[in-house]
């Protein structure tokens, strides 16, 4: 099982990799594998992209 800090870093890496997102304004918190994203993005499609990127990370609940 991955630690919360490893999951957090993996989510950050995935968000930064996604070319449709400006991840500088997205905060990532993880507690027991549950990820909370905070911040602002440029519209609903970017919000969905951030959610999908997060769901792709192994260990996210």
Summarize the topology.
Layout (H helix, E strand, L loop, with lengths): L3 H14 L8 E6 L2 E6 L4 H12 L6
Antiparallel strand pairs: 1-2
Q: Please report the total strand number as a whole number.
A: 2
Q: What portion of the residues fall into strands of 2 or more residues?
A: 15-25%
Strand order of the largest sheet: 1-2
- Helical content band: 40-55%
Largest sheet: 2 strands, antiparallel
| Helix count, DSSP H or I runs of 4 or more residues | 2
The figure for the number of domains is 1
Description:
- This protein is of the alpha+beta class and 61 residues long.
- It has one domain (4-55).
- The protein is built from two helices and two strands, in the order H-E-E-H.
- It has helices at 4-17, 44-55; strands at 26-31, 34-39.
- It has a two-stranded antiparallel sheet with strand order 1-2.
- The model has no long low-confidence stretch (mean pLDDT 96).
